[in-house]
């Protein structure tokens, strides 16, 4: 009965099935005896969902109309858009980015921001460039908008960003396509936890500027986990100043992780360019997409963000709270990585973020099954397993790498 464009589409629910098995194991054996490392949200060391007090208090104190009325604009309320600009480009963005133009489109989560960007910058049948190790939904989002994807190797033999393969794949797409759209999920790459060094970013941008002399280059920087990295934000922001006009950068912002409001569904696209036409066009087409897809987003979420970010005191409280959880993640990672080094368990280079990924050379199903027999639940990727450091308490981290190593050996 379905239309031709939708034939054969169905969600692969492997991960949901594993999460289900983990829940059942918890019912039978008790929470303390099960390691559920499948979840992608932040839990504290009592394995309770983290919610930030500043966020909860601000939300509870919103005016009723701030929550229940429609948002005033399709592309997002103006204070929300201002807050997003300050978060991404810095409080002094107006002075720091003189000569640049920006526009913000409010979207339902980072997911909406990715979707709009792929929809409006890929020509039908074109491929978005992704790393081989990636957050899976990018692939189906490309498919959903009538496009597809190509991939590059994420790391070289030395464990650094594989700039050579990245460049090769961009050059290949330059020959085949009118537009080259690239997603870079940084900092805190999901699933590895890799964060690019500033020099690596510099090389990527220099190369993309060269390519932009030939074709349109659209760089989508997915910053969903930006507040869980200790990266120097000034150095990072400086990278994006004065780029050539044919290289459009769109930052994909999400409130889900940084404000622990996954269910409020709020995010944004922020486009930055020195060319006003590029930005005007960005606003027009993405606003159109919003109206045609979800209309506008949660008004309460927008009010929440602007009331925190545009209030120095609240923002400071939020940062202090959030940094405690960031440090909690570092602590978990430190233990896991130290133990992995001691027993020579290979782990992809991790810098910060929610996840750690381990390459698996043998039958991955068998490894996952073995781990599950010991009540350890992980997410199998293609030839890797992902461990959600974000969701397991520190006491369960001790000894985990050893159990993984054993399951690989058998
Ligand atoms: N990007 C990455 C890499 C993610 O892992 C996620 C969520 O898990 C998102 C974007 C989007 O999240 P949301 O749509 O909840 O903002």
From TrEMBL:
Q: Quick check: keyword Lipid biosynthesis in the entry?
A: no
List, separated by semicolons, the cofactors it needs. pyridoxal 5'-phosphate
Residue ranges annotated for the Aminotransferase class I/classII large domain, each copy included: 34-394
CDD domains recorded for this chain?
AAT_like
- Residues in the signal sequence: none
Q: Which UniProt keywords apply?
A: Aminotransferase, Pyridoxal phosphate, Transferase
What binding partners and quaternary form does the record give? Homodimer.
The protein's name is: Aminotransferase class I/II-fold pyridoxal phosphate-dependent enzyme
Q: Which organism is it from?
A: Fusobacterium hominis
The upper taxonomy is: Bacteria, Fusobacteriati, Fusobacteriota, Fusobacteriia, Fusobacteriales
């Amino acid at each position: 009965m379905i239309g031709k464009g939708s034939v054969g589409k169905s969600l692969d629910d492997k991960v949901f099935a594993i999460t289900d098995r983990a829940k059942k194991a918890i019912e039978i054996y008790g929470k303390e005896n099960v390691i559920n490392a499948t979840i992608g949200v932040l839990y504290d060391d009592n394995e309770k969902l983290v919610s930030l007090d500043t966020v909860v208090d601000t939300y509870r104190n919103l005016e009723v109309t701030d929550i229940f009325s429609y948002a005033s604009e399709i592309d997002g309320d103006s204070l929300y858009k201002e807050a997003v600009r300050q978060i991404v480009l810095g409080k002094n963005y107006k002075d720091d980015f003189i000569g640049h133009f920006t526009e913000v489109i409010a979207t339902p989560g980072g997911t909406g921001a990715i979707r709009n960007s792929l929809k409006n910058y890929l020509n039908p049948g074109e491929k978005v460039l992704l790393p081989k190790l990636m957050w899976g939904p990018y692939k189906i989002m490309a498919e959903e908008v009538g496009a597809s994807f190509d991939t590059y190797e994420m790391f070289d033999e030395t464990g650094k960003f594989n700039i050579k393969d990245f460049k090769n794949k961009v050059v290949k797409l330059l020959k085949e396509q009118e537009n080259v759209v690239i997603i870079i999920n940084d900092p805190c790459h999901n699933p590895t936890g890799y964060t690019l060094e500033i020099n690596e970013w510099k090389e990527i941008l220099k190369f993309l500027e060269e390519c932009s002399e030939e074709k349109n280059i659209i760089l989508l920087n997915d910053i969903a986990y930006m507040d869980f990295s200790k990266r120097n934000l000034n150095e990072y922001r400086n990278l994006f100043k004065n780029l050539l006009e044919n290289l459009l950068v769109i930052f994909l912002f999400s409130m889900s992780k940084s404000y622990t409001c996954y269910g409020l569904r709020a995010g944004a696209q922020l486009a930055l360019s020195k060319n006003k036409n590029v930005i005007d066009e960005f606003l027009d087409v993405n606003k159109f997409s919003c109206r045609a897809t979800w209309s506008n987003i949660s008004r309460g979420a927008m009010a929440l963000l602007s009331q925190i970010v545009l209030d120095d005191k609240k923002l400071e409280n939020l940062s202090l709270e959030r940094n405690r959880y960031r440090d909690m993640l570092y602590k978990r990672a430190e233990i896991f990585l130290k133990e992995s080094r001691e027993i020579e368990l290979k782990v992809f280079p991790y810098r910060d973020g929610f996840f750690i990924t381990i390459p698996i050379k043998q039958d991955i199903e068998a490894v996952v099954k073995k781990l599950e027999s010991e009540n350890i639940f992980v997410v199998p990727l293609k030839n890797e397993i992902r461990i959600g450091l974000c969701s397991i308490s520190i006491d369960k981290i001790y000894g985990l790498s050893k159990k993984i190593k054993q399951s690989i050996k058998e």
